[in-house]
Model the fold of this input.
Amino acid sequence: MKNAHTQNEETREEYLTARQLASVLQVSESTVRRLAREGRIPCVRLTPRLIRFNLKAVCKALDGSRTHNAARDSDKSERDDAQLTFAEML
Done:
């Protein structure tokens, strides 16, 4: 039985609070919540106010949206739509 418990811990995904994710990304908690509300980063809503974030999924989403936005906005050099890249954290 102990082996099954250890195996579950190894496959378990870690989820962060908005505050923890903000600390990792070095942004404010309100920025994390805004990005989630806009659908720019994935989140799991447990209640309307209680949300959790998977760091790998968030980093992947930020890297993917950066590539997508760069292609879409390549002719709009005056627009400041900076994205964060965190692939090196994984």
Observations:
- Residues 71-81 have pLDDT under 50 and may be disordered.
- DSSP finds four helices and three strands in the chain.
- The helical segments are 2-11, 18-25, 29-37, 55-72.
- The longest strand covers residues 51-54.
